[in-house]
Structure formats: C-alpha cells, structure tokens
Specification:
This protein has 235 residues and is of the alpha+beta class. Helices cover 39% and strands 27% of the residues. A hairpin with a 2-residue loop joins strand 5 and strand 6 (129-132).
C-alpha cells in the first residue's frame, strides 16, 4: 500500500482543485488562437492559478502549524498552454528546512499526478491506480536512437530521438516513468527551484545525474556512464 505524508496529500488535493477551471480555460484558449488579447487572458489565468495555490497552501500551513516552504509553478510549459498545446503541468516543490522534501506534478489534461517524497520513492497516480516509478536500463539500445528530452538545441551529440517538449517538469515525469530515456537541461536556463523538483523526482525514481560544463543529464546510471564515455567526462 502506498503511503503519503499529509502535506503531499494536501498539495495534490489543492492542485487538482485549481486544475478544474484551468482545463476550461485551456479549451477556451484553443478556440481563441490568433486573437490579439490572448496573451492577456493567459496572464490572468496564470496569476489566478498561482494565487489560488498559494492561498490554499498557506492556509493549510497556518492551520496545521506546518513549516513547509512551498514553491509553486502555476503553469510550467506556459508557451504550450498559450498555443493550445496540452503539454503543460501545474507543479509544487515542497521544501523542509530549506531542502527539497517532495515534488508534486499534475498533468491537468490527463488527470495524472506524479509525486516524489524524499527517501519514499516516486509514484504515478491516474485513473488506472497508483504505481511506483523505476527508471529502467536502456544502455543496450543504440545510444543515438534513445529518446532524449532537452530544452535547447544540443549539437555535441548525434541523437536521433531528440524531443523538445517545452515543459521540463513534464519531460522529467516522462523519464521517471520510462516514456523517455534521458533529460538534458542547460542549467542556466532552468529555474533553480524547478531543477530541485526535477532532481528529486528523478532521484526517487532511481535515476542519476551527470553534470558536464553547463549541462545536466538525468538518466539511468548505466546510460549516464555511457554518456560519460561519449563526452570524455572524467568526474
């Protein structure tokens, strides 16, 4: 049986609550493509989600005397949302004593929740139930054909299976659930708190992190070792 801390359960409930009107807004945005005031509509939606999340979660902290720090990402993949593309998430990083304690990532359009808790594993919860996430070893594949999610154009590697989702938290969820093999991020382009959320989700799924120059790779240990060889990374 999967057990979650009360704060993770509460964050999940709050996110799902704010996602109902967000889904309605998304469908409205799909119909408004090309309208001049669309960016203003998206901005209002973003701020409404943010304020609702903070109000609900701050109220919970005050009522329970909790001292969790909550970092919210109202719409990660905002450009996708703006364009009527469903690859976006609503995410929250939960910090305890200044360190990442839990990550909750909601995919509003599919009613799917990914969450990870320090030393307790990572999980996927959807209409089919709950399952624990474990990143698998794919090093036996042709490394040039693995599916790598990235947020910038990578020219140092010959990768056929490159994907640019436009939503880093979603890409991390896909790697954690073996829907992709690796996530490649340019550190300077990613919000440090979002990077902490991703790092916890990947680590609790059994994945590893490889740093080289200004780039970080998240993948299975064996795949990280393979990339080390390709890139000549010594550390």
């Amino acid at each position: 049986m999967v057990t979650r801390s009360s704060i993770v359960r509460k964050v999940g409930e709050v996110i799902r609550k704010v996602c109902n009107p967000l889904v309605r807004d998304f469908h409205e945005i799909q119909r408004l493509q090309g309208y001049q005031n669309l960016s203003s509509f998206v901005q209002v939606t973003h701020e409404r989600v943010r304020s609702k999340l903070l109000f609900e979660l701050d109220s919970y902290n005050a009522a329970t005397g909790s001292r969790y720090e909550l970092v919210v990402f109202p719409i990660d993949g905002r450009e996708n949302f703006f364009r009527g593309i469903s690859d976006f998430t609503v995410s929250v990083l939960i910090k305890k004593d200044g360190k990442a304690f839990a990550s909750v990532v909601e995919l509003p359009m599919t009613h799917t929740t990914f969450y990870a808790e320090l030393s307790s594993g990572a999980y996927l919860e959807d209409l089919g139930g709950t399952m624990r996430l474990k990143i698998k070893n794919c090093v036996a594949f042709d490394i040039t054909k693995i599916v790598v999610f990235l947020d910038y154009m990578e020219n140092r590697l010959d990768l056929v299976g490159r994907r640019m989702l436009g939503c880093d938290s979603l890409a991390a969820c896909y790697v954690a659930s073996c829907r992709g093999d690796a996530l490649l991020l340019k550190v300077g382009d990613v919000n440090p708190e979002l990077l902490s959320l991703i790092r916890l989700l990947i680590a609790e799924s059994g994945g590893k992190e490889l740093r080289f120059q200004d780039v970080v790779l998240f993948a299975h240990l064996d795949l990280c070792e393979k990339f080390k060889q390709l890139l000549g990374v010594t550390q």
